[in-house]
Amino acid sequence: MPSVSYVALTGNRDIDGLLSGLRWGTTNLSYSFPEYGAFFDRGYGWGEPNNNFEPFSAQQRAVVRQHLNDIAAVTNLSFSETGERASQVGDLRYGMSDYPGTAHAYYPSSAGNGGDSWYNNSGRQYDNPGFGNYAYLAVLHETGHALGLKHPHESGTTLSYDHDSMEYSVMSYRSHVGASLDGYRNEAWGFAQTLMMNDIAALQVMYGADFGTRADNTHYSWSPETGQMFVNGAGAARPGDNRVFMTVWDGGGTDTYDLSNYWNSVTIDLRPGQWTTTADWQRADLGDGYKARGNVANALLYNGDTRSLIENAIATESNDTIHGNSAGNVIDGRGGWDTVVLAGSRSDYLMDGTSGYVTAEGFGVLDSLLRVEYVRFENGGAADSIENIIGADDFRNAIGDGSKRMGALWVDGAARGRIEAWNDTDVFAITLQGGRSYSFELRGLDLLGGNLADSLLELRDAGGRLLAINDNHRTRDAHIDHRIATDGTYYLQARSSGGTTGVYTITATLADDYRDVAGETTAPLGSIATGQSRRGEIEAGGDVDLFAVTLRAGQRYVFDLRGTLDGGSQPAPVTLELWQGNTRIQAGTTHALTGDGFLAFTAAQAGTYDLRASFASAGQTGSYTLRAAAGDGDDFRDTLADSTAALGMLARGQSVSGSIGKSGDADVFAIRLAAGESYAFDLRGRGAGAGTLGDGYLELRDANNVLVARNDNGATRDAALEFTPAADGIYYLKARGVGSSTGSYTLVTGVPDDFADSRADRSDPVGALVLGVGKAGQIETAGDADLFSVSLRAGTWYEAVLQHAGIQDVALLLSQGGGATLASASTLTDGSLRLVYRAETSGSYNLLVNGPSRPGSYQLTVRDGLSDDHPDQVVSGGAYAPLEVRGAATKGGIDTAGDADVFAVTLSSSFSYRFHLAASDGLDGVLELYRGNGTRVARGTPSDGGDVLLDLSPATSGTFYVRVASDYQTSGRYELSTISAARGKLDDYRDVITDASEPLGRFDGPIESGRLETGSDRDVFSLYLSERTRYTVELDGSGIQDAGPQFRLVLIHPTGREVVQTVDRTGTGHAQFDFSPLSSGTYHLSVSDDAQVGGDYSLVLRSKIVPRMAEIDASAPITQPEQDLVFG
What we know:
By secondary structure, the chain is mainly β. It has eight domains: 4-203, Collagenase (Catalytic Domain); 218-391, no CATH class; 407-510, Jelly Rolls, CATH 2.60.120.380; 526-630, Jelly Rolls (Sandwich), CATH 2.60.120.380; 657-750, Jelly Rolls; 767-866, Jelly Rolls (Sandwich); 890-982, Jelly Rolls, CATH 2.60.120; 1007-1105, Jelly Rolls (Sandwich), CATH 2.60.120. The protein is 5% helix and 40% strand. Its main location: secreted.
């Protein structure tokens, strides 16, 4: 199976509400359709392969392929179909079973069931998936789970109330917003036909976005009679009952929605995440009186990339409404009275033309409106006619002119306007802050395309008093720089200086408070000295403020920079650097949580240096405070406000070392905590052997520096506290000593732990077990372990049972005194673990519950004596653990004299089967096969060492029962496995190299064994041979009771040619040859019997390294000993 990766939350609820936290670690996945339940491993999932299994039909497979193609079109995933064999299956598998009752799928996992989905068989509701029905949606829904999507209502982040419906996600249980979770209410053909917008966004976060899909100029249309979509004229799938309910993802190009073949009024919306309505009769009925809010939704932008926008629209001959987007749109209203809706306000656009062809220039793009009668602005109220918009004066001529609208301008914004007559004036209102400097520009001849030849700009206060005027700033544009005294509303008046008319752009920006680089003269140079602080502004994206600082040689200095974004108190990551002239001397560090900048520097030479302060993101603006101090070498700041040392940082599961250097010293660390999650913090010094701090004290404070938890005496004299925050956010841990206590320490973060992880872990107690009494516990995090002690008596058998709730890859291990593992548990059919052990000596033993992959709760019970793990007899209606054909070996034990274990296995009359019982610990095993009516059909007894081989070719298919018992009242452990082959062809190894129906033999030990099941059988093995080595291959078949076997050994070169062939003509059952390969590689060895007797045999491979001639020491003999080698 491919690896699995974890997915971090994005902060976007529309995406995070669908993230399970797991995804595949590759974008290349395979899928397959199993033909037989026998192809699944023993103990698979919830037993789906053994519960009325049925393979997918051709129709169901076609739907899977369509869904995977559609998913690959919106992500960077690629899918390849593979045929199912016992040795090869797909990463995603699709099958029918009576478990589940509806349908379910497994999340991405390295386990054998990861990525598999199952659909109820007996109910038949999934038999006929069609474009837009429930079965079609169900396959898409379960495939979403298989790729890592969860239900939006489940724990963790959820989709918002107004987006938790099928209109936004196929993973939702709700047909419409506000619906209950007890079942879909959609009409028969009213289900989503594609991934919806939030599904696409979530999958793209996990696997990337495919901008190569329909990246050319794509034309989309739909049929009003059938609902079929056409892409560049090619028809896609035809839905049932003329419904259209989908989301469109387009990778690039200049694309068009064309609804000109509809005769009704339509709504076309080109904005991401919005809906186009083709026709009311094509909207899906979602039940409870609700219809889908539209027919075609646009996918959301991936990371703001506008390549996926649909740029153009063609409407109908009726009265239509078309919403534009941020691209340059070409919108054709055709007939009727059509309205185009544009973003922003009327003042954001320069419009020209007539109702037949109008251009609207705004927000940096040009929209072309053909045959459109009305325009409405999202921030501008009711629609207005094209004639009114084009012909009227755009802005009022004076501040008090109430007959026309006031222009609106904002800091770092721009507005477009037109001087329509020689005496026209346009007035704009703007809100400004006192104490800040601003720059205002009126551009008529610049590169933005204006044509106002000679412009004049005035700045007036709220009472209309003139504050500044300019009519010629460089070229013939106008420019004003002015420092505002008080907060309030101000007015900019734009007009022509020479009686000209034309188009202009007016802008307002913050003026720079400090120069950006050395030598700049347009802004002052800042300065700072030790013990001082400076406040400043980053007025525009990319702004840098420069401060001169004089340093003495040999003195250590520290500089602290903390920023706040405009519009609130949100901290912003800053960048702090130290320069001298044009050379950067040192870059400071930026705290990953708070964004604070910190720089410590010891000057080698005295002189004047420059500190450069900026925001880490080029597009951010806001304020900051810069502080300078003489550093004393403290490792971490003492308080949250302290600027003389760095702020420490921690995350759950991490640890950090520090030192309390003197009385009064403290160290502060920032950590991000999530609401509702529990955290544990340990300050470990001398008490835990993790430092020299004699008596530690630990505080936890919130973002406002309010104390929320503290501890001054944890285990020994260290400090420990646990905390569950009510709100997300950054918190601060403060470590110090009690009184005059100083020294080093380690600060550890994690989750509260109930029991010690190991014998060396002294931060939590070792659990104490009492025989027969269950002990509850918790694996709090992946990688956690819990240690228990229990007293056992020599010579007594004990049984430990671990029942758990979904702890992935859980293990139960027994040891004594910190030594090696004495016993490990096996997994029972119900998922619990059972460990059996006979104590060698009396004393205290340790049981370790290990949860390496996933947390969960459990109960551990130890009993003296053994309980029976499986039924002893075959009885009608009994419950038996399943035995998997070609699955992993089933491990068990005959615990007492007279005990037996019974398993159920499904066999087909088309196959032959071999059951292998490998016994140990003194067990003489007996293997019996029964029909469902209790009739015994076969019995096998030990051949040697307790092993039993039993072959069966059943006359009829069905459920059989395998009973493991013992001869001579013995007990012990066993492993039971099963293989199968086509009827009459049961074979341990393949006959020819290319025969994939049987396994290829490999050398997995010094001596390899096999069996020629028939006289004409042949076994083929692979083995790797190295050059400069002499090999001897020996075959021993002397144990065969029949007379006269003549074994033939053939060695085949990697190129396929035979290089050695030898035959035993003596009939003794022995064959042998020597071989020295000229080159290293994988060879094949064929074993057959010319006398066609067949039987068991063993192989031994011996080798001797042959040195090159130049390496031979003529004065000494070659003493390299002959040795048996293991090949595989």
